[in-house]
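re: that chain from earlier
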Amino acid sequence: MKTTKETTITSSFYAYLSRLRWIKRWGLKRNAHDENVMEHSWEVSVIAHTLALIKNRYYDGNVDANAVAAASLYHDITEVITGDLPTPIKYHSEEISTAYKQIEKQAEKELLNLLPAELQADFKTLIHHDHMPEEHVRIIKAADKISAYLKCQAELKAGNTEFEMAAEHLAKTIGESDQPEVMFFMQAFVPSCGLTLDGLMKTY
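^ sequence. v structure.
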């Protein structure tokens, strides 16, 4: 029988991460369906993974899709310290935006330091956005916007007009993207997201 190596190392890193489920997004808006940071991170991860694969298969890309997916899972973990600052506040002024970026960077450092020293180098490119390949960052940001757009569409479908302006803004931003993989995803995958379960089953 295999025995596991005993360790005296202790870390609260995953205890912090587990609390992402309690951090709600879209805090300034009335929500028909609440969304937390943990579920949002999963959705961004699968979208980003797909975007990377589309880029590789259709547009001669050479992106590590698995690395993109892993980094996406951690893309909002600083919010376990900072909370989710709504976009209208985050970009309300240059001063607020700059200050929040500094807070995020400090939170990245603090979370990384919670890990055992031997693991910190492995997590650095997952947690510190400044150490990620630029192409990974662009794909994750695009996936984040697509996830937000899908959330807006779900709220509108539920009759919640609170998300009308956000949906319009995101549609415009995504539509102006110069990333062909984003347009591919929006055309191939997004339309069916508005279907009911019965509607989805009829597509088989």
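The mean pLDDT is 92.
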